């Protein structure tokens, strides 16, 4: 099918984009970044935005900035950027591990990190990363810059705290220390499909025991989040099967899984238990 | 109907000055306005990969991009693969390894493979198979496509 008519705006600066969003955001205007979710939705005419504000010509938004403790990913940085070693250290290694699970290469050459966050699909790998690492979403409108914590950003299925006149300007992720290990596991029916569930786990070792554990679940609930109960079960324990199995069991019990035509809540709960264990084992 | 926008698409080195509605996808404009019908449209929502073209060297789904967004960018389609009357190594190995039957998906596979091999001539078999899994083929079962692309990789390296 073909998308319905819309007015096209192609700003070349952030200020111009924000002015357009102020004018057309409330009039069913949408930001167009990679378009790999928005354009198919428009082809099905499930979305019929009156205006598209294409941010692809804004040079400033294509940058990844690495500062001492923060990685700032601009709104137009493509998924494919993370297939390369553009970010060093443990955070880069983690993003490289995860990017291969996102759709397919020709989608990754167009789709953007920030677009996935703004779209907030429950099965988005990047949303899970943001939740796990307590990233920050930087939202701008003509007047203000808001910093939204990951925990406050996701509010439900494809629903975020972003307002209609705001541009998701960038996402900030912490630089993980060299002693941080991470593991990721997801399950989908075929490679490239939307994941039915996923788990991302990171921790450090202090005197042989787990410190600063993070365990986030995506795809199972309406939005990704850290599971505090599972993290508590890991803290201070020696890494290995007993701690991992216990944390995985606790994570599976702590979630409220979604149900759909193909996947029952019990199936998703079982997946999360297995995936949590695999994520933890692969991090070890 | 919304206001048309004047753009220039550069396809296989030829400039096409056009006036298009913003809602029209790059795939439709390549086919209908530029007459380059080698690029096929299967699903029109980014799943099948038949419409894959190269945009500044990167394989993309041309059904998931609006033509107005490609203004000034370099587009390559299957029509640009052969060199004069000589088929591209990928086209030759696709024939040799029987990597097509009905041929509907073939332009997409050729452009996908060309994009991958030009950027990563030394890509390993596992990763290549993973990359090729982005496009759908209902005839071949994929094995022959993988064989053809591997054979083309060898030939392209020998020529480079």
What do you see in this structure?
The complex is a heterodimer of chains A (284) and B (160). Chain A is α+β, with helices and mostly antiparallel strands and 284 residues long. Chain A has 10 helices and 14 strands. In chain A, the strands form 4 sheets. Chain A has a 5-stranded antiparallel beta sheet. A 4-stranded antiparallel beta sheet of chain A has the order 11-12-13-14, with helices on both faces. A 3-stranded parallel beta sheet of chain A has the order 1-3-2, with helices on one face. In chain A, strand 2, helix 2 and strand 3 form a beta-alpha-beta unit. In chain A, helix 5 crosses helix 6 and helix 8 runs antiparallel to helix 9. The model of chain A has no long low-confidence stretch (mean pLDDT 97). Chain B has 160 residues and is an alpha+beta fold. Chain B folds into 2 domains: 76 residues, Roll (Ubiquitin-like (UB roll)), CATH 3.10.20; 71 residues, Orthogonal Bundle (DNA polymerase, domain 1), CATH 1.10.150. Chain B is built from 5 helices and 5 strands, in the order E-E-H-E-E-E-H-H-H-H. Chain B has a 5-stranded mixed beta sheet with strand order 2-1-5-3-4, with helices on both faces. In chain B, strand 1 and strand 2 form a beta hairpin. Chains A and B meet through helix 2 and helix 4 of A and strand 4 and helix 3 of B.
